[in-house]
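Box 3.1 — From sequence to structure: TIGR01777 family protein
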Amino acid sequence: MRILLTGGTGLIGRALCRLWAAQGHQLVVWSRSPEKVAKLCSGARGIGRLDELEAGEALDAVVNLAGAPIADRPWTTKRRQLLWDSRIDLTRQLVDWLASRPLKPRVLVSGSAVGWYGDGGERRLDEDSPAGSEDFASELCFAWEEAALRAEELGIRVVLVRTAPVLARDAGMLARLLPPFRLGLGGRMGSGRQWMPWIHIEDEVHLIDFLLQHEECRGPYNACAPNAVRNAEFARTLGRVLRRPALLPAPACVLRLALGEMSDLLLGGQHLQPRRTLDAGYQFRFPDLEAALADLLGRH
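Predicted structure (token representation):
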């Protein structure tokens, strides 16, 4: 299979490239730094512009994961524009390019995030739940999905992957939490009662591969483990796996002062279930948090 990726040099993209290169697929990564692609993406071909692909070069699938990191820094006006451009504008450009090609791929798998639902409080949510409407993250995800769904008008199957915070050993949320937790300085955020969806990196990449391969899959799928936890339980479990106390909370007022509106990502949450993902037949390798953390941190 010949696959075009955007966001291929990110955490999820690099893991996908390792999986698909091992399976023998041909990979092309559209990147702002194409010269780095081969090293970072398991030998994939890097391109800096879409027009580097000739019209006669057929693609079987496109996987769109591009987007500046959403939780790296506070959402200033400039940062909001970058987050918007790197997702919505890039996805619109990608779909416009697909419309111009005589040979269209069979499927577009496009990234999204559980922020689509906004702060769900205690409500149990699944893929049929409505979008949030009161914060920037939900507006961003809604527009991102709308931009990708335009590809359906081209006869392309569109899959939307609403990803929870991804647990990985060397990057992402877990890597940021490890230094204070290893020092015994970790703990809950705010009240700790907010629900906290999550997914192991192996399940993230194997779910994307599953959705790519199954022709009957289209529309939104939640990429989150089926056993949801509250923030305080996540902190206790991480402390237990590391054999460290996890008793020092991060007060909500401090997080709001330091991060502004971005603190909503930490203080809000979603009691989320991957109902359509499970109904499609995907079997999670790591449905339980403690086993997932133990695998990643070598504590078996």
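Summary of the box: The chain has a mean pLDDT of 92.
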